[in-house]
Amino acid sequence: MNPWIFFAAAVLLSCERICYLWIWRAPERFCDWCARPARRSLVQEPVDVLELLFWFFKILQGAVFAGWCAFFGDGSLWPASAAPFNLGLGGALLATGQALNLSVFHRLGRIGVFYGNKLGYRIPWSRKFPFSCLKHPQYIGALLSIWGFFLVMRFPHDDWFILPAVETIYYALGAYFER
């Protein structure tokens, strides 16, 4: 394990959670930041800015994951040996995670997903699935997707669980501090 690669990955992945935590805990400051004239010409609403940040962070997350796989896979992104069990379980975790994420978007809508309730919109509280079963279905969905991805791409190598474990800690801390 290269400690510098781990450190770089951990720092880059933390940016998403830190940004979302800032927005959750200080939505007025985020709205003020979005209202600055230089940013006003690009997007109209803080929810729009948050959606752009979401896509940026997903691209960054994907790049970190691909870079990790390439570095520890000796330059190859595809796993050297993917057993059917790993592919099946990893694929099932990934599909379940994405289904949870899609169901959150379906229930809350775009504005609800992108912290509309914190940014001045009235968003009705949902108690329907997936919220009827899980407190943080979008975070659980993201984590299932991450674990599934690394189960397919890096298992049984010694590093396969490291980034999923880091992300689990980050998402758990995010859920805790967003209460």
Low-confidence stretches: none
Number of strands: 0
Mean pLDDT: 91
Helix/strand-derived class?
A: mainly alpha
Can you give the helix content as a percent range? 55-70%
Sheet-strand content, in percent, reads under 5%
Order of helices and strands: HHHHHHH
How would you sum up this structure, described in words?
The protein is mainly alpha-helical and 179 residues long. The chain has one domain (3-177). It has seven helices and no strands. Helix 1 (3-25) packs across helix 2 (27-34), helix 5 runs antiparallel to helix 6 (137-153) and helix 6 runs antiparallel to helix 7. The protein is globular and about 50 Å long. The chain starts with a helix and ends with a helix. The mean pLDDT is 91.
Provide the descriptors you would attach to this structure in a database record.
single chain, 179 residues, mainly alpha
Summarize the structure.
With 179 residues, the chain is mostly helical.
Q: Layout of helices and strands, plus pairs?
A:
Elements: H1 3-25, H2 27-34, H3 37-40, H4 46-72, H5 84-113, H6 137-153, H7 162-177
Helix pairs in contact: 1-2, 1-4, 1-7, 5-6, 6-7
